[in-house]
Amino acid sequence: MADVKATARWKRRLTEYIRAAGGHVTAPRMRVAEVFFSMAGHPGIEELATEVHKRHKGIGNATVYRTMRLLCDSGLAVMREFGDGFARYEARNPEAHHDHIICTHCGKIIEFGEDAIEELQENVTRRHGFLMKSHRLEIYGLCGECLKAER
Amino acid sequence: MADVKATARWKRRLTEYIRAAGGHVTAPRMRVAEVFFSMAGHPGIEELATEVHKRHKGIGNATVYRTMRLLCDSGLAVMREFGDGFARYEARNPEAHHDHIICTHCGKIIEFGEDAIEELQENVTRRHGFLMKSHRLEIYGLCGECLKAER
DNA sequence: CTAAGTGCAAAAATTTTGCAAACTA
DNA sequence: TAGTTTGCAAAATTTTTGCACTTAG
Q: What is the CATH number of domain B99-150?
């Protein structure tokens, strides 16, 4: 919905960050970032590189790696769960919080937001005299397919 | 404190798991597991392998990898954080599960267990077609003292 | 123009695999 | 004994690096 604004946001933030570090705002960097932010979910470097190459021929793999590191350093992306052999990233949008369910067998990741849980968390936290600022919830288990395949 | 009992617990659980899968309870497996459970924190494969080799010469690296996969499959360990190039693991003690509230200002950590939250987690997970194996919940905020000091 | 960034391919680092020998049940 | 597991080293994967060439500022 607020796609245009969101785009403007990362572009501006990334540019600022690069400039502040005395770096150059180059086309390859912006292209990789653009592809990354256009992808839903938690793309692995693998999928990301494939998509980048598909949309922009001639961008080297090393640039994809280097740009993702840049995005992480700038706080626009974070490295996430693991277990499938390559790095996965998630765009960081502080506005839209969500938690994760992760299949420990195939690595599938589901995002969810459960108000009831958030509320209980607030309660527990308050009960311990704390003021809740943020949280992180990860549930590990087996997804439907892997459960079936298990037998 | 309950070290002896805890030891007995993973040993029994691991043995059960291996047997159930028609596998063999071998010395190398038990040795790797023993070293792993004796290490605090989130040892990386790297440190783990080093420690294993230090305490038991002649155990191959592949066995360390294979045993850690076994521990993960059996639910006695989970793969954790990333970002340093190799896999990290955390021992999971199903009996003594607890979540954390962490003060982002002074670093104080409170452990708590909230059945209602656990239940809701089960529900969400099931609703997404998953079977929950474990989870991790961390709440960040400010503790009472830091709140007072804040003004 | 100068310093930073890029692409490529080679190197490094991490994890998995094949197989004969050793071992568990 | 039959079938699993091991250790080793080789293979496969994933990530980083070196370097000549381009490009942003």
A: 3.30.1490.190
- B142, B104 contact by CB (below 8 A): yes
Between chains, do A101 and B144 touch, taking CB under 8 Å as contact? no
Quick one: which of B128, B104, B143, B107 has its CA closest to A99? B128
With CB atoms and an 8 Å threshold, state whether B140 touches A133: yes
Question: Which of B4, B65, B126 is CA-nearest to residue A85?
Answer: B65
Residue B140's pLDDT is what? 79
Distance CA A140, CA B115 (A): 17
B17: enclosing H helix or E strand: helix B3-20
Question: Minimum mean pLDDT among A67-76, B103-112, B123-132: which range?
Answer: B103-112
In a 13 Å sphere around the CA of B40, the CA atoms on its Cβ side amount to 1
Residue A74, C-beta contacts closer than 8 angstroms, at least 6 positions apart? A13, A14, A17, A18
In Å, what is the separation between the CA of B87 and the C1' of D21? 37
Domain ranges in chain B?
2-91, 99-150
A46-75 confidence digits (pLDDT tens): 999 999 999 999 999 999 999 999 999 888
List the single residue in B with minimal CA-CA distance to A113: B124
Q: Looking at residue B113, what is its pLDDT?
A: 85
A interface toward B at CB cutoff 8 Å?
79-83, 87, 101, 103-104, 110, 112, 114, 116-117, 120-121, 124-125, 128-144, 147
pLDDT band at A32 (very low <50, low <70, confident <90, very high): very high
Class of A2-91 in CATH? mainly alpha
Give the Cα separation of B5 and B30 in Å (integer). 16
Report the length, in residues, of chain A: 151
Over residues A16-33, the mean pLDDT reads 95
Q: What is the pTM of this model?
A: 0.69
**Considering only alpha carbons, which residue of chain B is nearest residue A132?**
B141
